[in-house]
Structure formats: structure tokens, C-alpha cells
Amino acid sequence: MALLEVLVCFICGSVLLIYWTLSKRFSYFRNRGILHDKPSFIFGNVKEYRRTKNIYQILQEYYAKYKNTEKIVGFFLYFRKVVILLDLDLIKDICVKDFGNFTNRGNYYNKKDDPVAAHLFNLDGVDWRKMRTKLTPTFSSGKIKSTFPIIVDVANTLVEVLEDMQNSPLYDTDVGMEIEDLISHYTTDTIGSAAFGLDCGSLRDPNSKFSDISKTILDFRHNIIIVSLANIFPKVARILRIKILPEKVSKFFLNFVRQTVTFREQTGTQRNDFLNLLMELRKSGDLTMEEITAQVYIFFVAGYDTSSSTLTFCLYELALNQDIQNKARSEINEVLSAHKGILTYEAMIDMKYLLQIMYETMRKYVVTAFLLRQTAEDYFVPNTDYVIEKGMTVLLPVDAIHHDPDLYPNPKLFDPERFTAAEIEKRHPMAYLAFGRGPRNCIGSRFGKMEVLVGLCLLLKNFKFSATKKTQIPIKSSMFKLLRASEEGVYLKVEKL
Ligand code: HEM
To answer: Are 447 and 303 in contact (CB under 8 A)?
Structure first.
């Protein structure tokens, strides 16, 4: 046989093999009687993703279509088979009662070649359990409370910077200021200070090293097909040494942590921050330098992007809802006068309406469209004939649940009254999943809330926010960012009070 014929046979054979494998994969749910939309070749059920729709829209539509008749449905995130949970009792079972079978997220990571990606969010099984136990004391309410003054300091700088920007001759009140970037500098600086005792300086210098690295992380577009394949074939991906993080980001964190730890060890520096606690775990032989770096990385990423997105969308809604903004400001002023004009931790706790506003923002603009868990053993879905097979990924459609009109009537309306204690009590506990649920929920939620509330309090006390001709109404979420972000920036008019 001529070389050309061999080549043609090989190519045809490979194409047929790929076609056969994908067809088999895409018929998985049909063969088990689990409903799902017909997947398209390669793209599964997310063909419109990043073209005409974002993941929030896709999942909201899917959820609305099936939620009244099904407890679970099938879905293909590209080639990755996923079971979407549509029933809140079932979600509760999986996150809490039967958590032992759903400890993992099943995210691909490669500890050997890409150690910074082996952080608490990605770790699975025994590794996750051990790490979570080691890190839990770092996030105790006492430890978090002790970082409160640091956050207030950074929030005061934010107020000063905003004042300077507002006084600048370049500020055009018809257009307003783009606040999304500015707020991300605030949260970068708070997490930098509180977690690593470091003045990132991104508020004062938007081109600082940390702003640059935050941007690289935020703008990094995963090659979704590669990640999807790595998730399905983690062993092969590890053999091929596939990495998840950009080299620049890994190097930056590995160098930064090594230098800071060495400096502190050599000079005997003790700081009241997360890194200090991680260093103590290293001393007792519980963590290696690479493991510390991975946790520092995830604290940094989870600590600035999530809170920054929440605070930005919150200010956007307050700009559109002046009555809510005024009510919030009245509360802030009243509580502060009751606390001698000083923003203390206790004063922040007393600002109940502000907390309701934050919760409502996190309902309407939850940072992650969905959460994932992976089955360790076959799981028999209670009161049905369905089995979720071992190794299957289950998806909790958080954003779709937060927009379910049966749970939140008129879901597009921004209404903090949904989060009075009485209203929360009336709803199913799984109707709100902004910080996840069960033992694998957000470990940093207290810190995240504090970043948002302190920022909100000092901004509203000092400024009035309103919409301009450049404010996108209704605001659209970016199709490309990993976590919730706006499509074209958030422009608001800012007036000093
Ligand atoms: C407004 C702020 C925040 C929001 C909305 C948020 C949201 C979330 C969500 C939804 C999860 C997944 C939970 C689940 O799967 O059940 C999560 C996990 C996590 N978050 Fe946060 N987060 C915030 C702030 C923070 C902060 C400040 C830190 C650290 C300093 C942090 C660190 C983590 C870590 C390490 C995990 C993984 C936990 C594990 O797998 O054991 N988060 N977060």
C-alpha cells in the first residue's frame, strides 16, 4: 500500500473513532432515560456560549424548561457529561446529608507540574479534607475580626482616591466614572494587606505589579476544550503535563511567597495575617512551600474577584434605585452616630439593611453561575429510578435558582426586602447558594462579606452614585470572564456628599 493510502486510512479511521466515541458519549443520558436537550457535535449543550449567550442565560433557560417536571436532567458542557440538579431537597441531600459521596468537585489539576493549581478549591478526596481541616482555624471569626481595621484603612484610601478622581478635570459627569476597575483595586489591596501583610498599592498605582497580575488572572481565557478534555481524562492530561495556570501567574506567586517567607523567617517578622498562619503550618511540617503558595494564590483570587464583583454590581443597583440608596445611607449615618461616629466591627454588624442589600446583590448577580460536585459511588436519587453513576459531575444551577420566579417573584427586580429574617425563613434553605452549602462551602465568606460591607459603608457615607448616559441598562454580564463581570464596564456618576 502506498504511503498516501496508509495516511488516508489513518485519518479516516481516526475521524471515525472520534465520531463513534463522541456519539457514544452524547447518547449516555438518552440510554438511561434521563431527559436532556439534543447536544451539538463538539459543543454539547453550550453551542451558543461565548457567541450569543453567556453561561447564566444558557443555564437559566435550561432550568426553566425542565424544573417543573424533572429532579435531574442531563447536560453536556462540551464533552463533559453533567447532571443538573433541579430539586432543592436533592441539592440539600447532596451538599449536606450525603456529602460523604460528593466531597469532590472533580476539577482537573496537576500537582507535579502545576503545583499552584493544587489549592483548596481544586483539591479532592483525602487531600482536600486534610487541607480544609488545616486551614479552617485561619478563617475563625476571631481571626477575621482582627483584620477589620486593615480593611477600613484600605476603604479610606478608596474614598480618597475616588475624591481625587472626582475632582480631576478629566472627569466628565455626563459619562461618569468606570468603577469596576477601581473597586477591583480596592479588593486587591484589602486581600493583599490582610492575607499577606503587603501594601499592593493598586489603588494609588493602577499599574502596580499586583494589578497587573490580577488582570492576567481575570482576563485569562482558559482554552475550554483543553480544560474540558483534561477534566474527562485527568490521567492522560497529567501524563501530557497539561497545566491550568498561565506560567506568568505561577512564577509570580512562587517567587513572591518564597521571598516573603524567607524574609520573615530571617528577620523574625510576625504579622497578623493569613500568611503568618500558613507559615506556622509549614514550621510544624504540615505544609510545604508549594502548598502554601497554592493556598495564597486561591485566597488572593477568591478574595478580590468575588468581593469586587459583588460591590460593583451593588453600587450599580443602588445608582438605579435612589430610594434604596438613601435608605442605606440613613442607616449608615444612624448606626455610626450610635457608635461615636467610628466604623467598628460592631457598627458594621448593626447595619442590617446594608447586609440585606449585599445579599440581594449576590442573589441577582451571584459570582458563579453554577457549583460542581462529583459522585464517589453510584448514587440512587431518592424517590426516583435514576442513578447518578460513580464519577459523574453534578451541577447546581445557582444563578438559575436565584432567578426562579417561584422562589423570588419578579426576579429581575432588585429588592433587599427579600432578605429580612422573616422572608429568609419562608424560603427553602437551598434557595440561596451565593457562598455554596455544606462542608465544601466558601471558607472565606466572613472575610468576603466584610470587604463588601466596609467598602459599601464608607462609599455611601461619602458619595452619591447615579446613572449616566453611558451606564448600560440593563447591565449585561461578560461572556468571557470566569466569574461574574460586566460586559463593557460600569459607568456611574459620583458626587461627593
Ligand atoms: C463575596 C465574596 C465571596 C463569594 C461570593 C465567594 C463564593 C464562593 C463559592 C460559591 C464557593 C464554592 C462553594 C461550594 O462549592 O459550595 C467558594 C469556595 C471557596 N472560597 Fe469563596 N467566596 C467569596 C470570598 C472568598 C474569600 C475572601 C476567600 C479567601 C480569602 C475565599 C476562599 C474560598 C475557597 C478557598 C473556596 C474553596 C473551599 C473548599 O473547596 O473547601 N472566598 N467561594
So the answer is: yes
